């Protein structure tokens, strides 16, 4: 969320928070001019709300004015593509419900026609199945037999089938047995007498005792987390880090310690202001240089414990550029980071 200044409309905000807004066009923005949070077309946000031209906005001059609706060609898909929003499913066009009904009707008609064709041709189907007969072989004993198999006719006697004998094959052994070798008597040789020599006492190497693997230490949950990504504004007058600290209910929190440091030995801390101080309750600021740096620089930022200065929030990196410091040029001279309590 950006701090409010004269470049932005004072009535621009979020649905539940009229004091907070983004510095780019988004569908979540609402206009609180009339007291009720009203949607704002993205073109109107860029033309009025997010620029000094907000004083010329018709609704800024008269809260009762209703802004013109989007044009016929400015549909949801074009808006999402133009502003880079994440696409969501929008309402159906006027023709899609009728097309869906027509497709369902066509499927139903096709199914009914298939059932009618099957029912009306049952007789033909049964006739076609009844006309099929198994193949008939040659007649034996005055009767036809299927597949040419012999048929036993009790009136004509039993048909006798004489099997054809097969030749008997006698195997001839062609293997010549191998003669068995006669073993020779063993030869006895004298065994020399061996005088044992003294053996050295072995050295016992102690076995290392295995130690248990230490259990991993759970990382504590951070007490504060960024309320959003780091935002930057160009400035030719100063280089600084600033922001606000909130509790879980959106209230500003004073007294928290914020630290800024880098890898070259620089480190400093500030305390969030109390009500009635400076820019107000929960505000903190690091003033680094009266103008842009001569070259790109980066620092680390975190909310820390005031006693140990150990981070109680994630460590963020803020980066500064030396050029494009005029309004609208996109330079990075002022880093804006808001924090919120993480219950």
Summarize the structure.
By secondary structure, the chain is an alpha+beta fold.
List the helices and strands and how they pair.
Elements: E1 12-13, E2 30-31, E3 38-39, H1 42-49, H2 58-61, H3 76-83, H4 96-120, H5 122-130, E4 136-140, E5 143-146, E6 224-226, E7 231-233, E8 239-246, E9 257-261, E10 267-271, E11 283-289, E12 297-304, E13 316-320, E14 334-336, E15 339-341
Parallel strand pairs: 8-14, 8-15
Antiparallel strand pairs: 1-2, 2-3, 4-5, 6-15, 7-14, 8-11, 9-10, 9-12, 12-13
What can you tell me about this protein's structure?
The chain has helices spanning 42-49, 58-61, 76-83, 96-120, 122-130; strands spanning 12-13, 30-31, 38-39, 136-140, 143-146, 224-226, 231-233, 239-246, 257-261, 267-271, 283-289, 297-304, 316-320, 334-336, 339-341. Residues 70-74, 83-96 and 139-159 have low confidence and may be disordered. The protein has 343 residues and is of the alpha+beta class. The longest helix has 25 residues, at 96-120. Strands 6, 7, 8, 11, 14 and 15 form a six-stranded mixed β-sheet that branches. It has a four-stranded antiparallel β-sheet with strand order 10-9-12-13, with no helix packed on it. A three-stranded antiparallel β-sheet has the order 1-2-3, with no helix packed on it.
